[in-house]
Design goal:
- The structure is a homodimer.
- By secondary structure, chain A is an alpha/beta fold.
- Among the domains of chain A are: about 260 residues, Aldolase class I (TIM Barrel); about 60 residues, Double Stranded RNA Binding Domain, CATH 3.30.160.
- In chain A, the strands form five sheets. In chain A, strands 2-3-4-5-6-7-8-9 form an eight-stranded parallel β-barrel, surrounded by ten helices.
- Chain A contains 17 helices and 18 strands.
- In chain A, about 40% of the residues lie in helices and about 20% in strands.
- At the A-B interface, helix 4, helix 9, helix 10, strand 11 and helix 12 of A face helix 4, helix 9, helix 10, strand 11 and helix 12 of B.
- Chains A, B: It holds the Pfam family LeuA_dimer.
Chain lengths: ~525, ~525
């Protein structure tokens, strides 16, 4: 039986950009569009030309790039009431964008037509039909039926009329939008079937556009595909307004790897998905979502002695698919729930598993440290150095003689802020003593600056690394301000990112230890 | 038609704690358990007594708290092979936990029995049955069928046998676990029906336990409930291993507000859900997920001219439910009055809602501070003082002239630790100047000690208060060590406990501000 192709329509650059905290520059959009084309996305919705200059520029610039088989779409609304399509600025902007596809959104819900647009139901149909006719003259036309499911619930006959108006006007795709995100899968299935049946005599295919307000966007989109939809609209990583659009990563993965009978992205490999996901996060300056299905850093991360023991025997017993299929990888976490098998997996990576005596020493040390508040899951580099220390292969690149931070507020009375932080450190590098001081926004920032000052002559490669994240956690809540503090630092250079940890009752000491590990890890990597 | 009750089983403290980066102290677990009981969660799985001391302590301590109708469950595995139930340490640990419920997990998948546990299929059935019989003597027994869907796929007859063994042994609940998270909704529906039918002659109810590896945990759990399951196992905010367990927030909301014919939490109001979600994130020291369905800060946040216009006319046109139902609120992102916390509720508490001008000033100040990283949900005392300042009824009991902390390690070479922290402060109390210094375990501990030294002559009532918790949070992750730091302090006297907050790039300044608010709150209370 031939697999049925489901086309993927990406609106990361338009609907996705409406997510809180998301803002793409023109360059960002062009870069993302190229990455989408590389993996074989069928439709790339680039923006809303009527709404802003940046989107107009996007459509101009994107023509200079090779997007393979992917088609760029320009998005816009139906013509204004009491105006002809040819005179409407939105219509003109769409035509001027000169894209192979145009996506036209129109009102489906009778209430929206009469109360929000303030037109009669008939006028709305005319707006849809005339806009469709005008825009489909020189472009493939996709019609987005806004609020389709709510509109169908309120007035099913009218909702179908709006679809027919668009189809009669020349739309070849009718995408049913669950704009409020509140429809349930069984209802999506029923209504999608009804729409397909009602439009049986028209030369159209049906698409689906879901939002995640009930955490059912993926289920709804799959239900629509099962009901006959052949286009899925969504965004990479599910970014978008409110709870986001459907995550195309999940949709592509589910359609290609979990469902039977469908093919996506022209049958291409899904291996680039993980990197694509991270690229979009980085470009949008958003945090990665570790627990994101398929491509999250934790998606195949196993903790808890009970599970890791089994994984070491056969991965399929605890993984529903092979992480490599989407470019992800298995991770074994070290934690307080780790028995011997967690350590084994990490030690395998370090090629130590045959040395039982060493393994026992490492395990004993990990347990000792965990009881003090250490946790090595986000501190793989500190764990790495721990193994080296126990195995005798740790070579410190400098020695801390002393360090102190002075911080506070010198002057709370004047207009200028007296808040300050200074770090003073003394290190030994080889035979030389280095005494340095630095200012900073706060104590840890100052310590980091002082450390780099002291080491950069001897170790210029430190300029390649930067601190990207800093977390502080009190690990014994309930003891007030005398509790143990856990500091996690994330560092990165162009090849990898690594986590280190420090624990102490004194946050300055905890921060210093985490910083030293971060730097030593880099130096161990780069000075063979 | 009567609504069917669906029981909610929370494993935030056990399965949820296996999520990456999640670590709960004993106190954290007790606090969360109480909050779960308050909203009416039916079953609270507290931990795995065989695996660690902290969980044993939990079951001991939780008996001292009033959990209303909620039942605490202790979790454990079937007895070891070649050992009688009564001699098995895991069995004994479960009985010693003394909980009203016990949750027993056993192998369903023939492969797991023979290759992982290395027992015959018959022995596995005996292990299940004998463990169930032993544990159900004095507790309600819930049986978790691990890998049920994969096991049923591999060998359906054997999978059913494992369920029957547990039921015959005395389990009254059989929860079907999609442990790998890879099953699709239609299959969950089919297999759940098959299990219910096969167990028709037994006095059992069926539960469902899903993981989110395909982003279908909610859909799968709903499918199982539609198929006849009457218990849903999950975690608050969906925390848990890999991609997490099903999010009980979404499940409760969907069952109560979206699906027809079901009732949850004994019909209680869902208004506490939003606060509960945030409380669990804060306690786990995890970031809130803004786009989280129902309770996320962005779940009802509207952006984009096209939508806001319509919202102002009629909220239901763009919201699938009223956010107030789950204790969330609508936010209009273009409005200057969008605030993240439930300002209205707090202002109502202070009886200010009739003073519109004052309310506007307070709102404006809150928005300003929130943009800097403040959040008043766990800092009610700081909010209280903020209101007083704006209302003109704040009377500072002392004035900060300056303060500084010196901390670090003086001597990393000797045997004695050179780690130190000293605080030096200068305050004005009335007409007198106080200059004091104190040592501490760390900077904040030292500042607190110095502050008390300086104020205790004039204000002896400060001896009644103590600091009970201290949380630190970086509020602008991604900026390395120059980010804003949010410090939350919890203080208590014999009458109440109160939270205060400080925010700054400099952790010392943030800590000082939170400490000053904590002390001023006490002094405002006690010096009329």
């Amino acid at each position: 039986m031939n697999a049925k192709p489901i086309l993927i329509y990406d609106t990361t650059l338009r609907d996705g950009s409406q997510g809180e905290g998301v803002s793409f520059s023109l360059q960002d959009k062009l870069n993302i569009a190229e990455r989408l084309a590389e993996i074989g996305i069928d439709f790339i919705e680039g923006g809303y030309p009527l709404s802003n200059e940046k989107d107009v520029a996007f459509f101009r610039e994107i023509k200079k790039r090779d997007l393979g088989q992917s088609k760029v779409c320009a998005f816009g609304m139906t013509r204004r009431k009491s105006m002809q399509a040819k005179d409407d600025p939105g219509m003109k902007a769409l035509v001027e964008a000169g894209t192979p596809c145009i996506t036209l959104v129109g009102k489906t819900w009778d209430y929206h037509a009469t109360e929000v647009l303030r037109v009669t139901l008939e006028e709305n149909l005319a707006m849809i039909g005339e806009s469709a006719e005008f825009l489909s003259r020189n472009a493939e036309l996709i019609y987005d039926a806004e609020h389709f499911f709510d509109g169908y619930h309120a007035n099913p006959e009218y909702a179908i009329k709006t679809l027919k108006a668009a189809a009669a006007g020349g739309a070849t795709w009718l995408s049913l939008c669950d704009t409020n995100g509140g429809t349930l899968p069984e209802r999506v299935s029923e209504v999608t079937r009804a729409a397909i049946e009602a439009l049986a005599d028209y030369n159209v295919q049906i698409g689906i556009h879901c939002h995640n307000d009930c955490e059912l966007a993926v289920a709804n989109s799959l239900a629509a595909v099962d009901a006959g939809a052949t286009q899925v609209q969504g965004t990479i990583n599910g970014i978008g307004e409110r709870c986001g659009n459907v995550d195309l990563i999940s949709m592509i993965s589910n359609l290609a790897l979990k469902k039977k009978g469908f093919t996506v992205l022209g049958g291409r490999s899904l291996k680039p998905l993980t990197q694509l996901s991270r690229f979009v996060y980085e470009t949008a300056n958003l945090q990665w979502r570790n627990s994101q299905p398929f491509v999250g850093q934790s998606a195949f991360a196993h903790k808890g002695g009970m599970h890791v023991h089994a994984i070491n025997k056969a991965a399929k017993t605890y993984e529903h698919i092979d992480p490599a299929l989407i470019g992800n990888e298995r991770r074994i976490l070290v934690s307080e729930l780790s028995g011997r098998s967690n350590i084994t997996a990490l030690a395998t990576k370090h090629k130590l598993e045959d040395d039982r005596e060493l393994m026992d020493k490492i395990l004993a040390e990990v347990v000792r440290l965990e009881n003090q508040g250490y946790q090595f899951e986000n501190a793989g580099a500190s764990f790495d150095l721990l193994i080296k220390r126990i195995a005798g292969s740790y070579t410190p690149h400098f020695e801390t003689i002393k360090y102190r931070v002075v911080a506070g507020d010198r002057n709370t009375e004047g207009e200028a802020s007296g808040v300050f932080a200074e770090a003073i450190i003394k290190l030994k590098v080889g035979d030389a003593l280095w005494f340095d001081a630095a200012e900073g926004h706060g104590p840890v920032n100052a310590l980091d600056a002082a450390l780099r000052k002291a080491l950069s002559d001897e170790y210029p490669q430190l300029a390649e690394m930067r601190l990207t994240d800093y977390k502080v956690r009190v690990v014994d809540s309930g003891s007030g301000t005398a509790a143990s503090i856990r500091v996690n630092i994330e560092s990165t250079d162009e090849h990898e990112s690594w986590g280190t940890i420090g624990v102490s009752e004194n946050i300055i000491e905890a921060s210093w230890n985490a910083l030293v590990d971060a730097v030593e890890y880099k130096l161990h990597k780069s000075t063979p």
